[in-house]
Amino acid sequence: MGNGRFELVIFDCDGVLVDSELLTNRIFAEMLNEVGLPVSLHDMFETFVGKSMPQCLEIIATMLAGPVPPKFIDEYHARTTAVLKRELKAVPGIETVLDTIDLPYCVASSGTPEKMQITLGTTGLLPRFHGKIFSVTEVARSKPFPDVFLHAATCMGAAPSVCAVIEDTPTGVTAGVAAGMTVYGYCALTPAERLRAAGAHHVFSSMSELPGLLAQ
């Protein structure tokens, strides 16, 4: 399903390729409650989803009015790794999307390369992204800045104007728009109006819609 409009599709990872957002944010909320911050899963999606770990830690330190407990990150990684390996699945329909779109594609995420190895590996998607994995750890600034998307486009040899970004958070949408790319907001978990408000050019709620949208 190729077209003359796009030369590259850039996927976010968590919530777009792998159905990890509910799993990891459930753990995150539990841990924040354990350190005295009474947050709900809804609060997690409002405040933390789409941000890098350093950004999240800054928010937590502000909420605590003090430093984050020293073993918080290690404990979070241990707990989330265990639950991801046990329960993680690919986003419904994403394999069909990857099989259908006749376009080069890659992944550009706020997650670390190590995390993507686990999530993409657990879901069986890793072989599809060999040599096409880009992390915010490789650039100067995290989303909502465009750095990771521009880095991915440069490495893949595509101009921003011919790149489509698939994102599921306002932070990621903002980054894609700032990169000068066309952004498709996947609203399975995030309300469509929040993605539109962040600048998404199109929104969709089922991955089965995406190939047709890209071909329009």
Could you describe the 3D structure shown?
- It is a single chain.
- The chain has 216 residues and is α/β, with parallel strands linked by helices.
- It folds into 2 domains: 8-19 and 89-215, Rossmann fold (3-Layer(aba) Sandwich), CATH 3.40.50; 21-87, DNA polymerase, domain 1 (Orthogonal Bundle), CATH 1.10.150.240.
- It has 10 helices and 6 strands.
- It has a 6-stranded parallel β-sheet.
- The longest helix is centred in the middle third of the chain and has 16 residues, at 72-87.
- It is globular and about 55 Å long.
Percent of sequence in beta strands: 5-15%
Instruction: Please state the second-level CATH architecture of the largest domain.
Output: 3-Layer(aba) Sandwich
Instruction: Categorize the overall geometry.
Output: globular
Class of the largest domain in CATH? Alpha Beta
**What is the SS-derived class?**
alpha/beta
Strand order in the sheet with the most strands:
3-2-1-4-5-6
Number of self-contained structural domains: 2
The run of helices and strands is: EHHHHHEHEHEHEHEH
Terminus-to-terminus distance: 10 Å
Radius of gyration: 17 Å
Q: Averaged pLDDT, please? A: 94
**What percentage of residues falls in helices of 4 or more residues?**
40-55%
Counted beta strands:
6
Q: What is the CATH third-level topology name of the largest domain?
A: Rossmann fold
- Tally of alpha and pi helices: 10
- Describe the main β-sheet briefly: 6 strands, parallel
CATH superfamily of the largest domain: HAD superfamily/HAD-like
Low confidence ranges: none
